[in-house]
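User: Working on a comparison across species. This one is Glycoside hydrolase family 2 catalytic domain-containing protein from Pseudoxanthomonas japonensis. Can you predict its structure so I can line it up against the others?
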Amino acid sequence: MLQRLFASILMLALSPLALAAPSQVRIVQQDGAHVLLVDGAPFRVKGAGMSGDRQEALAARGGNSFRTWSTGMDEARVRAMLDRAQRNGLKVAMGIEVGNERHGFDYDDRAAVKGQLERIRREVGLYKDHPAVLMWVVGNELNLHYSNPKVWNAVGGIADMIHAEDPNHPVMTTLAGFDRKLIDLLKARAPSLDLIGIQLYGDIGALPEKLESSGWTGPYVVTEWGPTGHWESPLTTWKAPMEDDASRKAALLQQRYEQVIAADTKQGLGSYVFLWGDKQERTPTWYGLFLPSGASTPAVDAMQYVWTGAWPANRAPSIRPLRLDGRVATDSIVLAAGKSYAAHADAQDADGDAVTYTWTVLHESTATSIGGDREDVPDEVELVLQQDGKGGMTLIAPDAPGAYRLFVEVHDGQGHAAYANLPFLVARP
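Assistant: Here's the predicted structure for Glycoside hydrolase family 2 catalytic domain-containing protein from Pseudoxanthomonas japonensis:
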C-alpha cells in the first residue's frame, strides 16, 4: 500500500508540469523597438481578458495569452487554471487584486498597505514558478476616481517586492486612460514597473497622440479594449446609451486592431481584448464576445482574422441595426402603452445556415457603476410576442410607463449568433 502511494507521489512529481521551469520573460530593445521575449523567443501578445473558462476556444481562434483581474489564495483553482493554460499553449498575465480608493481602501493607512503587500507576496510565491505565467498585473484602473497619489507608492512597493521574489516575470499596472500628470506620478513613485497596461475603448484611436503628449516612451500592452463604451455612446433623449449591433462591433474591433494595436511595433507589445466571455454591464451583451448561452459572435470571428489572417470555416451570422415601429435607436423611440408594434431584425448567414430568432424585452438598466463593477441583469418583461420566423416580430407595448430595451439574438445552429438591441420608452397615457 505504501509502495503504491510513494509511486503515485513520484509520478506526480515527475509529471511534465511539475518538472517544467518557469518561463523566462524579458522586455528588451531591438532595433529601436521594445520586444517581449519568452524563453528567448519574441512573443507578441494576442490575447483576451477572461476568467479562464474558454481557454480552448481562445487557443483554437489563434490567441496565445489571457489576462485575469485577481489571483487569490485558492491554490487548487489557480493551479488548475494555469495547468490548463499550459496544455493549451497559453500564457497568463496574472491579475493581482489591489485595493481601489473608490471602494474604500485608504492609502494613508500604513497597516492596510503593509497587509496588502504581504498578502500579495504570498500569492506571488504560490504561482511564480509555473511555466504558464507571463507577467504580473498589479491592480486594475487604480487611477479611476482616485485622489491619493500614495497609491502609486504602494504599486511601486509591490513591484519592488515582486521583482525580489520573482526575477523571471515583468510587472505592470493598468490605467483607465492616462496623461502626462499620471505618467509623471508613475515615473516618480513606481519607477520599477517594467511596462504599463493601457485601457481604452472608443477613444483608442487617440492612443498614438496620448503616448506622445504623456511622455510615455516605454513599453505597454493594451490590457483592455473592445467596443465603444457605454459612457462614450450616443444617448436617447431619456439618457439611455445606444449599443452597436454585433456586426458593427466586429468591424470596429478589426479596424481598431489593425490601425492602432498592430500598427505600433515600437512600444506596443500586443493586447487583451475585452471580454472573452459574457458580462452584464449596462446590458448583457455590451462587452462580451460570447452570449450567455455560450454562442460566439462576429467579434470572435474578427479576432480570429486579425490574429491569424484567416476567417473561420463557418462564420457567425451578420446583422444590421434593429428596427422598432420602423425606427432605429437614434430616433429615441417612444411607444404608447398597450398598443401593438412591429419590429424587424435584418440578419444574414454567409454559410447558408438556417437561422432562428430569439426576442426578449428587459427593463432598462439603472446601474451607475463604473470600472466594470458588478451589476445585476435587469428583470425580463413578460410580453405577448408574435414572430414570423423571418426576422419580423410584433409586440404589445408594456402597460407600465418607463424605459425598456428590446433584444434579438440570431442563431445559426452551429454555435454562433449575432445580436442587436435598442432602448425604447413607454409614455404615460
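For your comparison, note: The CA atoms of residues 208 and 264 lie 8 Å apart.

User: Helpful, thanks.
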